[in-house]
Each structure stands twice: as C-alpha cells, then as structure tokens.
Amino acid sequence: HGPHPQPICYLLCFLSAPSRIQGTRPISLTAAAMGFFGSGKAGDSGGKERLTLQNVTEFIRKKECQRVVVMVGAGLSTPSGIPDFRSPGSGLYSNLQQYNIPYPEAIFELSYFFQNPKPFFTLAKELYPGNYRPNYAHYFLRLLHDKGLLVRVYTQNIDGLERAAGIPPDKLVEAHGTFTTATCTVCRRSYAGEDFRGDVMADKIPHCPVCTGMVKPDIVFFGEVLPHRFFLHKTDFPMADLLFIIGTSLEVEPFASLAGAVRSYVPRILINRDLVGPFAWQPQYSDVAQLGDVIGGVEKVVELLDWNEELQELIQRETEKVQRDHAGICCLKSRNS
Ligand SMILES: [Zn+2]
C-alpha cells in the first residue's frame, strides 16, 4: 500500500461478482450434499452446520466436485524459498539495496524501469525459471490436473513454479505475468524468455536483436493491463464447483474479488496462515478455513483424499526428471569443454 498505485486496480470495475448473492441451487451435488447447503441466503449460516474439510474432500471423492478453480499467492511459494524482495535479510534484498531504490515497489514501475532497469533485472536473475523448485503444494495442484479436476489455477506469483510443476500453460492464468516470455519495449516483438537467459545471468540488460530496444520480461508492471487470459475468470468462476484459495492475503485487486465470483453454494477452501478476505468478514456455510502452515494444510487435504501415495510418486518422478536434466546439462558442458 502507501502512495503508490496498486497494480491494475482500475480493472476492478470489470469484475462481475454478483453470483454469490443470488442463492441459486446446486446442480451437480447429490441430495445428501445439498442438505449442507440448503437454500439460505448467502452470508447467513442460519444455524446450519458449516461445511468441514472432510465434507468437501468427500464431495471430491464422490465426484460431486469436478470443476476445481484454484487461486494462489505468495504463501504457496514461500516453502520453495522464494525470497520477498521487501524482506531485509534475504540475499535478494541486499542485492537490491545497492541501487538505492526510492521504495521497493518502484522496481515494478515503468518510469523507474526506463531510468534504471538494473534492480528489476536483479529480481529477474533471481526468479528466472530454474533457480527454485516447486513444493508439495504446487504438485498437489498438478495432481488435481492429472486427475482431470482442474479448470484453472489463477496465480499472483511470478516465480513460474506452477509451470515448473508441470501444470500446462493453458491451465494457468499468471495474473501478474511471467518470465517465460518477454517483449521488446520499442518494437513490441515477442520473444522466449530463454533467448535472454545468458544476458540476465551475466547481469546484462537484454536488447532486441531486431531494433536494439530494451527487452522486458512479461511481468505486469503498475499501470499495465493484465494478461488477456485473466478474463477467463468470467467463465471459469461461474462454472466452478469448488474453489481453493491457497497462500494469499486476498488484498490485491482485482485478484481478491475473484473469491466472490463463484456461485453462492460452491465450497470455498481457504488454506492460509490467517483468516482473510470474505472468510474473515462474511463467512458462509460453504466456506472452510484450514489455517496455519500452508503445506500442513495441503497435506491434510491430501490425506483426507487418500492421495498421499500418488502425490509422493509424482514428486519422486518429477524430482528424478530434474536431476536427469541437470545431469544432462552437466554432461553436455563437459563434452563441449
Ligand atoms: Zn525491438
């Protein structure tokens, strides 16, 4: 917060989030499940039993929830060691300190970027694909996809760990952009982020091979429009029959308002350190909050679903793949040298 504009907040007015106040009836839930939801108006638990995590995981097991939308924020990636550029103590923070940035958010402001792109590329170097690994919670989302349950993951994170976990790009909305692609700030040509890996790692500012303009990774800066894909929310949320909200404070708009864009009886599971957003100020009987450690919360869900073995196998496979790839790169290097 503070005096600086929130990214993209002007887009809030485009959000249509009236659905939770309309008390429509479930269509994909059995009569037994409907007993929990009843027909009470939104925001009024009317003495009905609140849903529990057990109830919701039972819906998944019985295939009564099959269109899962997920919203994630920084709390999902903290266990992967992704540093917060505003937190003193991290290496990234001290690397950025040398530039005397007027305030931390300035590194995402275009005017500052054109004046001094180095701080942003210091962050880019840290977060470029490959430095960090997805964690247990990312792979849980991958497993949702493998089981055909995932409609979409909406992420505020720019670390690319959802992709790294093997969730296909078409299942992702990277609301604040990505380092996997980049655009020339002058001629607007689009490039693969990989094309500039060498420059970024060598602390060089990447330039367009065609027009020599500065190339900027496709991270959404303050005042820039959101990726077109963000507007998939207009169909994704109304059709969802389950919403997971993981590791986000639900403070940054327009992302935060999406939590209210599912139908009123649709279960919403918050897995987060604290109670946030509508879970705090207007809890409904279809809301479930699993508070505390994010990985611990996801483990609880996985255990109730009895997916633990499958998830461990997936993580094992993916870890071996990374080690093989890494070994491959090393062999290639030694052969070339
Ligand atoms: Zn160019």
From TrEMBL:
Keywords for this protein: Metal-binding, NAD, Transferase, Zinc
Active-site residues from the entry: H176
Cofactor, free-text remark: Binds 1 zinc ion per subunit.
Superkingdom, natural source: Eukaryota
Cofactor(s) in the UniProt record: Zn(2+)
GO molecular-function term, one example from the UniProt record: histone deacetylase activity, NAD-dependent
Positions annotated to bind Zn(2+): C184, C187, C208, C211
Signal peptide segment: none
PANTHER family assigned to the protein according to its UniProt record, in alphabetical order: NAD-DEPENDENT PROTEIN DEACETYLASE SIRTUIN-3, MITOCHONDRIAL, NAD-DEPENDENT PROTEIN DEACYLASE SIRTUIN-5, MITOCHONDRIAL-RELATED
Name recorded for this polypeptide: NAD-dependent protein deacetylase
